[in-house]
Specification:
Strand content: under 5%
Number of strands: 0
Helix content: over 70%
Number of domains: 1
Order of helices and strands: HHHHHHHHHHH
Amino acid sequence: MTAYFLRDTAVLTGRTLRHVTRSVDTVITTVITPVAMMLMFVYVFGGAIDTGSVAYVTYMLPGILLITIASGVSYTAYRLYTDMKSGLFERFQSMPIARSGVLWAHVVTSLVANVLSLVIVVGIALLMGFRTGAGLPAWLAVAGILLLFTLALTWIAVIPGLSAGSVEGAGAFAYPLIFLPFVSSAFVPTETMPGPVRWFAEHQPVTSIVDTVRDLFAQRPVGDDIWTALLWCAGILVVAYAFAMAAYRRKIA
């Protein structure tokens, strides 16, 4: 059973990846927003924000990476919505393939497309002055956290992709996710925020993820932040997966 599932998922993933490679503008569009934000914050606002001896582009890059992921997963919802409306899912149901393989193909495609977008954003950040002395273990830890965060947000994206009433609605869910890093430690220290905003910023998932990635890049001890970040990502993933599968079962019932 597992072998059939993996085979079917691989074939369907190849199909969705071909859609991405034939539409490179989707990857370009995904990175335009975070890169524009990075340019604006570094060259317009960066001089007014005190981050000590750390270059502002290095300080704010972890938040930009999370915005890149949030921007990218909106295309997962879009692709799922268009597949649903085209009747493709109904055709797949009449074929001897693993039903959940259809969803996992979109999820794997999201991971691949977002990795490509993240690499582009990091490359541009390097041109803008981002520097880190992090070794291979730290980079692998950063990659693992970002992949887990991407997986969690992708399964959130599956829900509107299956249940939205319009293509605009399928992608609109990403706007709050893109906004969330702005109320966190991503761009300014939380100590500068007023009381209620500071409390929210310090207790929402983005702050723990940003702080963990920032400490890994700076070669500092990550402390409890990494466990908080992993728990947030795993919790979001489990809940989103459960709701996404429930929505899928309703659609194919």
